[in-house]
Automatic annotation (TrEMBL):
Pfam families listed in its UniProt record: Pro_isomerase
Function as written in the Swiss-Prot or TrEMBL entry: PPIases accelerate the folding of proteins. It catalyzes the cis-trans isomerization of proline imidic peptide bonds in oligopeptides.
Enzyme Commission no: 5.2.1.8
GO MF annotation terms: isomerase activity
Enzyme class: isomerase
Keywords noted in UniProt: Isomerase, Rotamase
Protein name: Peptidyl-prolyl cis-trans isomerase
Amino acid sequence: MIIFSTNLGDFTVELDMERAPVTSKNFLKYCQDGFYEGTIFHRVIKGFMVQGGGLTAKMKEKPTRDPIANEANKGLKNVIGTLAMARTDAPHSATGQFFINVANNDFLDHTGTTNAGWGYAVFAKVTAGMDVIHQIERVKTTTIAGHEDVPREPIVVEKVTIVDEPTVA
């Protein structure tokens, strides 16, 4: 379990180390390194998802490690309360940014090994604090520095606490 403490409250996530080991280990390493502390939820789209894990409150992108292999083909689905890796148009480009689905977004699931079909790799789920996620989802947004759907007031990850360290093979 990993607890994310934000300025709007806490939420807890549980990694799926068995079905998404590469992605889960990557996310866990960012958590262990304190990478997410001080980042914001910089993209919030009501009825879709809330995205964070890469930008500071001044909209500066944090340097990341190398991209990881996309595990969207492992059978996990982009349903309400799941976490998936954000990426560019390139299927295997995810680094540190993630999003939390606030709707069942099956159009983000893996359908094939083409660029369009790869999908977005789900690797965890929110196990407590979905009310905080829905609170984030409802904030007013604007455009800042070329980024759309940015909360007008920063939603900051203040602390990340790893409660039960998952077994990493």
